[in-house]
Amino acid sequence: MKDLKVVDKLADSFSQFPSIGSKTAERMAYALLDMPQDEVENLLKNIKEAKSKIHPCPVCGILTDEDCCSVCTDPDRNHAECIVVALSKDVLPFEKIGTYNGTYHVLGGLINPSKNIGPENLKIEELVNRIVKEGIKELIIATNATPEGEITALYISKILSDRNIKITRLAYGMPIGASFDYIDSLTLEKALKGRTKI
Amino acid sequence: MKDLKVVDKLADSFSQFPSIGSKTAERMAYALLDMPQDEVENLLKNIKEAKSKIHPCPVCGILTDEDCCSVCTDPDRNHAECIVVALSKDVLPFEKIGTYNGTYHVLGGLINPSKNIGPENLKIEELVNRIVKEGIKELIIATNATPEGEITALYISKILSDRNIKITRLAYGMPIGASFDYIDSLTLEKALKGRTKI
Fold this sequence. Notes:
Two copies of one chain form a homodimer. By secondary structure, chain A is of the alpha/beta class. The first copy, chain A, has two domains: 49 residues, RecR Domain 1 (Helicase, Ruva Protein, domain 3), CATH 1.10.8; 95 residues, Dna Topoisomerase Vi A Subunit, Chain: A, domain 2, CATH 3.40.1360. In chain A, helix 1 packs across helix 2 and helix 4 packs across helix 7. Chain A is elongated, with a radius of gyration of 20 Å. Chains A and B meet through helix 1, helix 2, helix 3, strand 2 and helix 4 of A and helix 1, helix 2, helix 3, strand 2 and helix 4 of B.
């Protein structure tokens, strides 16, 4: 049996996704060949739609399908309190708790010298501008409990140290080294309540 | 933050694949939003190409991008020996060994009464026709070591019992490199029954 280059190429595409290894990618490629045509059409449509309709909110960076995201445009939200996260998807677990009523700011990543990502590559200037413009009184820095997350939190607290603003960090209810993808809402709620001043 | 229906729909599509749970599907959807546009275009192209170019070989059922697969058209292959498998991808591990030089026959599934899959839904008649037409002398039935695989193997051997043809089944036993600590008793029993002289 000849290697099917078309299938290999498809498997390669699937293996670009996080946590998809080469074995899983191969299984996915063969599963796709077995799928009914309308299910494949549906997948293609959903990919195109997601890629064309979803973009970051120009204010806070949360992914949205509207001009400005529903958090920034909500007058019932407390705009004096702002959670700072690395990526838009990190907002989801906070929204799932249901008790947080402030806003968010998406940095677009974390400071990582080994990958040449410095503060200038992140939306930190935008954050500073928002503090003035929106009258933010408290920043809750909710970066991952990893070295990159720590460095980023410290950097932000340092450049804002001469401003009259409370800067807090999520409490260490979070297991060290954990990623937001696998954290349960209860742990996260505890971490939010026990936040400490940096 | 509003639930993004477009992202949910995309995650749903990804979760249709085998071994992709809802968490992984969600991560994949967000990863896709972060991917460069050309990588996404490439994925779309590969899906379309695979789905349109790949089809089962009309003779043996192996997936191919040619009129007839490279095994069936290879004159150096021994057409008197044929491995019978459930799905096209089951052929890959045999081809990886590199020493098998016979042909294959893909049944397209296994007999499974609970899913209403009977012998008439599988390519068994096609197999019988090939035995006559290609002069197959030995059938090696390589279905999974599951109840469905066993039933299918038994069914095929029964309907061919009055023909002058050797029908064999893959040997059961311990995987190479396996330790007794981790072997299940059913496998061990099979390995004991099928013991061979040194």
